[in-house]
Amino acid sequence: ENAKVEMNAGGFEKFLIENHLHKAIENNELILYFQPQINLSSNKVLSFEALIRWNHPDFGLISPGDFIPIAEETGLILPIGDWVLKEACLKMREWQNAGYSPVRVAVNLSAGQFLQNDFVHKVKNILGETLIDPACLELEITENMVMHDVNQAIKSLMELKKLGVQISIDDFGTGYSSLNYLKEFPIDTLKIDRSFICDLDTNSSSVALTRAITNLAHDLNLKVVAEGVENLEQLTIVKQQSCDAVQGYYFSKPIDDTNVLQFLKKEHNK
Ligand code: C2E
Ligand code: CA
Ligand code: CA
Ligand code: CA
């Protein structure tokens, strides 16, 4: 991921990004990287989170923070979101065809994408076309996305659950929402935001908050993933607190699909 310089979007770059983004899909410039989530009871990979990058011929690898907000403003997030879903399922199909047992992939959704009328239909079609078990697809939504239109969100989530896909709340603890929705929404997993994890080794408030979130989630029969675990101290604390899984640089940065195959090969031989 660090092989190429990541660009920061200033004003001029933003203008360039906007002008080039609509061509990025047809020019095959978008790629998915994957970051493993490690199950703490088995020490094996639980799933891979798909993280988009834009491999621009002149600017190099552009990170999502520099173009997803622009894609959301311009509506390009809809075709990009469709592409991400399809590509994630195609990669799962490739890995299964290579002989590895099915591994789950988590896909990040944007509000505009999730609130489309035909979103559930799209998901169903892509799973059907790629012959992927719905249980292998995890959709990451945020608190703000569901609060935007609560009734529509509940309706979509119910249909997605019926289809058999997994639902996670991403960046948990950072959004503007009441805890009330946790009992209304059919979700499977809370992903504790990195901001609570990054200072676990030095900040007792973060320790208290991650413990409280983990206990709350478990009482509601939800799984808990700690995001952004970078060192052994943080890992030790979230293990003590009975988090179910971790994701972060301590285990692996996001990797490209070739490295995913290497990763699966190693796991297979463990
Ligand atoms: P996110 O969903 O919260 O993804 C986690 C981000 O944290 C990723 O940044 C990942 O590389 C980074 N990360 C993981 N472990 C660590 C760690 O231990 N330390 C630190 N400092 N960072 C870590 P990335 O790939 O730059 O993605 C940024 C955001 O862009 C994502 O945040 C997500 O909101 C958005 N995004 C990425 N891919 C997609 C996509 O396909 N669709 C949509 N709508 N948004 C996406
Ligand atoms: Ca995410
Ligand atoms: Ca996150
Ligand atoms: Ca985030």
TrEMBL record:
Residues 14-268 form the EAL domain. This is EAL domain-containing protein.
